[in-house]
Amino acid sequence: MTSVSQPTAKDLQRVFDLQIENQWNVKASTAAERKAKLTKLKDAVAAHADEIVAAVQSDTRKPEAEIRITEVGGVMGNIQMNIDNLEEWMKPTPVQPKANPDDKAKITYEARGVCLILGPWNFPMGLTLGPLAAAVAAGNCCMVKLTDLCPATAKVAGKIIRSVFNENEVALFEGDVSVAEALLALPFHHIFFTGSPRVGKIVMAAAAKNLSSVTLELGGKSPVIVDESADIDKVAADLAHAKQFNGGQACICPDYVFVKEAQKDALTKGFASHVKENLYKDGKLQKENIAQVVNKRNFDRVKGLFDDAVAKGAKVAAGGEFEAADLTVHPTMLTDVTPQMKIMQEEIFAPVIPVMTYDTIDEVIGYIEARDKPLALYVYAKDQAVVDKVLTRTSSGGVTVNGVFSHYLENQLPFGGVNTSGIGNYHGYFGFKTFSHERSVYMHSAA
User: Fold this and answer.
1) Residues 397/418, Cβ–Cβ less than 8 Å
2) 399-420: per-residue pLDDT in tens?
3) Which of 251, 288, 346, 363 is catalytic?
4) In this structure, are 135 and 251 located in the same domain?
5) Number of domains composing the chain
6) pLDDT band, very low/low/confident/very high, at 257 (cuts 50, 70, 90)
7) Distance (Å, rounded) from C-alpha 362 to C-alpha 368?
8) How many CB atoms lie within 10 A of CB 59?
9) In-domain check, residue 432
10) Are 408 and 393 in contact (CB under 8 A)?
């Protein structure tokens, strides 16, 4: 398929019809055939690695090292995991019937059919080709759309996909939001979307019109709970690195912190020290080591959250510099934050982190219980009783104890949100299951 920068609804319908017709051939493909496609995809990512780096940097000003980890190495590792395990995943699960032991039963894993994958801007390759690898492993056809905020990356992704697949199996479309809207009008069997809860509601409403099943990878305000038994310097170092990573623009990024008053100063000083060590030289921010905010609209939004907090009494404990000329936000920590401030009302998605203090763990749990379920929850404690209480009394997509991001990075764990932070999960075997229908098969004995 030739590249179409702004396809029409007619273009989309044509490819959709081709995939509807071809889905049964793809569904019937063997593990060896699917592995061959995945190997070709992995090789194409490797061959275009430098182009990927240049494109993502053009779109987002990410540090090269981050791009090579998340948008190249991580993608290749994800694809390889599917290749290594596909034969085992595809095996039917035998079930012994209870009513008649002479009968047989099994659960088979069959492709959902024709799927739509809508990728985000913050990790445009990793969070698009990752789900695609799972969909291909499960035997699906796919239509793919990256966000229009990453046009350079979309072009490279399109080149990669066209070098591996025929359009009647996998096709990528460039273009603006109207292309995504036109795609959502088509009766896909499954839609996989990564992005904000606001757009997730739009995707789910569109899917409902066609009874398409959905996987929604969303976000939310992910809390960090710091118990008095925690290693404060480790907490500070982890937060500094987390807010540096992609400029804090990750759905699992810590969004706010609860800490005891007696530990607040140590946390803020430690955060400032680690940020300075990581990012500053001779008092100047080394901008090549931290991504910019994706666009002016989001920069202004974050600046507005910061200004509102300061106007209402928040103190700048570290950072606080906003450079509009190149959309740079210096890693920032705010203290004396209250729940009424706007910065505590929406996901920040930038290298800014507010800190609130607490007296008892029950107070923290009550705060979290009263709000939308977050995508991630982080708890730092040497006291296992505290950890157990937090796990028992809260809900979140995933949890990392005494660290950040680890529940996401471990591909043997399912990754996904709950309610407002997402629906469904993926990664590894769970990605294969997401793009598969578990089909029950019961076979009576011939006698």
Assistant:
1) yes
2) 999 999 999 999 999 999 999 9
3) 251
4) no
5) 2
6) very high
7) 10
8) 19
9) yes
10) no
C-alpha to C-alpha distance for 352 and 298, rounded to whole angstroms: 13
The one-letter amino acid at 324:
A
Q: What is the DSSP letter of 293?
A: P
* Distance separating alpha carbons of residues 275 and 281, to the nearest angstrom: 11
pTM of the model as a whole: 0.95
Catalytic site residue 141? no
The alpha carbons of the chain give a radius of gyration, in whole angstroms, of 23
For residue 294, what is the domain's CATH number? Answer: 3.40.309.10
Same domain? 296 vs 335: yes
| pLDDT, position 402 | 98
Catalytic annotation present for 251: yes
Q: What's the chain's average pLDDT?
A: 96
306, two tokens? 């910061």
| 303-327: average pLDDT | 97
Residue 188 has pLDDT above 90, yes or no: yes
On whether residue 1 sits in a domain, the answer given is no
In sign, the C-alpha dihedral spanning 227, 231, 237, 242 is negative
- The residue segments making up the domain with residue 347 are 222-409
In the set 66, 169, 174, 217, the catalytic residue is 217
Q: Give the Cα separation of 284 and 275 in Å (integer).
A: 12
